[in-house]
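Hi support team,

I submitted a single chain yesterday and got back a structure, but I'm not sure I'm reading the token output correctly. Could someone confirm the output below corresponds to the sequence I sent? I've pasted both exactly as they appear in my results page.

Thanks,
R.
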Amino acid sequence: MARPDSSSRPPRPDSQISPLPTVTRLITTHTAIGHSTLHPASGPTPWDTLSSFTGFNLIHSTHSLPLSFNNDADQKAHEEFAAQTPVPLVNKAGSICRIVDLGPAPPGVEPFMHRTESLDYGIVISGEVELILEGEDGKRESRIVRQGDVVVQRGTMHAWRVLGDEWCRMCFVMIASEPVQVGDRVLEEDLSAPGMPPGGEGMEKQ
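Hi R., thanks for writing in. Yes, this is the structure output for that exact sequence:
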């Protein structure tokens, strides 16, 4: 068996605004005789800058259920989705896996509350961040989320804020959902904060 590649990480791409390590995406596939191997699309992926303290890195997306790996159908659908400018925040046809780097906001800049039509699994990879929610009677509530913690975000208004000087890295898996309805009120997607990418758009299901 060949030894694992022990070479150092590639340098941080110019599009990465945080000082955190480079993100390297490894995608598996099959050879012509059915053996497992790495897909040629493996490697560092580019970053999108939402603000001077927020960077997005799209890792992968899915566009059908169940998926078809035949003839790279799933990978081709992802590449078509990722080629959009800008890439939608939520994939209405399926799921998204995205790395998000969050840094300390400049003085006077308030965290932006927002809502997506999606179920989000937010996993803290490094650092810590404050999760802000609307709370009872509009009195905001918050919780510090630390390395290894997981937030299950179910279509609620929320915001993120780094309290210290260190950057935080999170992995988000976002799955499209129906709009939330509470009583007779439909809680619509809210991405009105400046600089937010478009929400639940993108390709139809494959």
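A quick pointer for reading it: The CA atoms of residues 17 and 104 lie 12 Å apart. Let us know if anything else looks off.

Best,
Support desk
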